[in-house]
Amino acid sequence: MNTNHLKAIVAIKRVIDYNVKVRVKADLSDVDLSNTKMSMNPFCEIAVEEAVRLKEAGIVDDILVVSIGPKNCQEQIRSALALGADRGLQVECDVSASPLDVARILQKIQQEEGADIFLLGKQSIDTDNNQTGQMLAALLDCPQATCASRIQIEQNKAIVTREVDGGLLTVEMPLPVVITTDLRLNEPRFAALPKIMQAKRKPLAVKTLADLDIKLTTDIELISVSSPAHRQAGIMLNSVDELISTLRSDAQVQIPKHGEEA
Ligand code: AMP
């Protein structure tokens, strides 16, 4: 395998913009998406940026971005094309596909495309699943590295540093690989206006689930959605003495006086 002509696929998801305060529908059936600003999932932006950096380094020469969702997810595909991806693919899907279904769809695309590097975000900020990359690697029976904070591609292998609880873990795997991105991998660039204009002319294909011979499973049922419990605002105190007296009086905490047994 020639490391200079690799193909990358980046899966990107359209989600509620991270700055938006999420509203819940009155009947608690779901999140209210009407008139809500939508964006590319931040971890997917990091995945696109990484693929573009690999292309700029002469390692990757074709980047396909894939999004599974309704027609308006083409906006996020165009944004990825403006950032430097070469081709886009929207898989039409009007319902929210489960991580397993997304992984099954991406598996089909991989069977057609034969990419060497599959980049995904470590998690979607709307559903917080953190599952799709792992499921895709299992379906493709290929190595995976989740939560990547550094990616090096050498010869026919990927050397990935992962953020784990106790620090950093570096793993080495033969290509093809599935890699999911963590926050510290890179800082995504902003698209310049000329690139946004050029992106309008880049190829964007559309496929249906039927084209890919996929039927969605119904193994996840959304039962209800509710807002987090309302929290009381905090108060600012000026000294430790004030803190101790407030804890004693307002929160009824038993704090022994100086010299008293606890
Ligand atoms: P999740 O497992 O849902 O937390 O998602 C992890 C990653 O899977 C996301 O950051 C995307 O890279 C990918 N992904 C999830 N859902 C979709 C989708 N509908 N279309 C494209 N990629 C997706």
TrEMBL record:
The electron transfer flavoprotein serves as a specific electron acceptor for other dehydrogenases. It transfers the electrons to the main respiratory chain via ETF-ubiquinone oxidoreductase (ETF dehydrogenase). GO terms for biological process: carboxylic acid catabolic process. The lineage of its organism: Bacteria, Pseudomonadati, Pseudomonadota, Gammaproteobacteria, Oceanospirillales. Heterodimer of an alpha and a beta subunit. This is Electron transfer flavoprotein subunit beta. Keywords: Electron transport, Transport. GO terms for molecular function: electron transfer activity. It holds the Pfam family ETF. Belongs to the ETF beta-subunit/FixA family. Residues 28-216 form the Electron transfer flavoprotein alpha/beta-subunit N-terminal domain. SUPFAM superfamilies: Adenine nucleotide alpha hydrolases-like. Its cofactor is AMP.
